[in-house]
């Protein structure tokens, strides 16, 4: 029988397994760029501890936006290397289908793959593919620039107006298990 096939009793609706519907809340969500670039959200952190807390929170909250920023910086570093740019565009297609525009969590061999694992895997594949095209120094410099840009934004972007749902807060380690 197919998923929604007719039986002697009519059409049997099929529901998503609870694990998939629960995991749906864990896959990446791009935040609006107007929130990301909001000038009113920028402020100096009072201490090193506050800066680190902001970085942890913002890296979790804006992770898809930060991935796009890093990819744009990496793409701009390849302007004078056409073969590397073609390789990058091929890997960018993988980014689009596996990370940015999927509606359901990624399932491999019947297991749901965490969004962070997809992010790290695609990052490694992209860097290795570009290093194999002999633009290792360009990739290294672009990644250093991306880390600095993302780190500065994450440290100076206030978190008072950024709200995580319960699943995102637990995933980012923001909830305490001590009562």
UniProtKB/TrEMBL annotation:
Gene Ontology biological process terms from the UniProt entry: vesicle-mediated transport
Location relative to the cell: Membrane
GO cellular component: endoplasmic reticulum; Golgi apparatus; membrane
Keyword Transmembrane in record: yes
Bilayer topology: Multi-pass membrane protein
Protein keywords: Membrane, Transmembrane, Transmembrane helix, Transport
Regions crossing the membrane: 61-80, 113-133
Keyword Transmembrane helix attached: yes
Main location as per UniProt: membrane
Summary of the function given for this chain in its UniProt record: May be involved in both secretory and endocytic intracellular trafficking in the endosomal/prevacuolar compartments.
Similarity-based family: Belongs to the PRA1 family.
The protein's name in its UniProt record: PRA1 family protein
Lineage of the species this protein comes from: Eukaryota, Viridiplantae, Streptophyta, Embryophyta, Tracheophyta
């Amino acid at each position: 029988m197919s998923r929604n096939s007719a039986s002697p009793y009519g059409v049997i609706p099929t529901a998503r397994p609870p694990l998939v519907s629960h995991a749906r809340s864990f896959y990446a969500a791009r935040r609006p760029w107007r929130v990301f670039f909001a000038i009113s959200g920028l402020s100096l952190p009072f201490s090193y501890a506050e800066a680190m807390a902001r970085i942890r929170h913002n890296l979790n909250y804006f992770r898809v936006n930060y991935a796009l920023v890093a990819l744009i910086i990496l793409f701009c570093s390849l302007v004078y290397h056409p073969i590397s740019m073609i390789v990058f565009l091929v890997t960018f297609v993988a980014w689009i289908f596996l990370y940015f525009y999927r509606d359901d969590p990624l399932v491999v061999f019947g297991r749901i793959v965490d969004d962070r694992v997809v992010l790290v895997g695609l990052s490694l594949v992209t860097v290795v593919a570009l290093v194999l095209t002999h633009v290792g120094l360009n990739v290294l410099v672009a990644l250093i620039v991306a880390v600095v840009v993302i780190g500065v934004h994450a440290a100076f972007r206030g978190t008072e107006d950024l709200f995580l749902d319960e699943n995102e807060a637990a995933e980012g380690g923001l909830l305490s298990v001590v009562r």
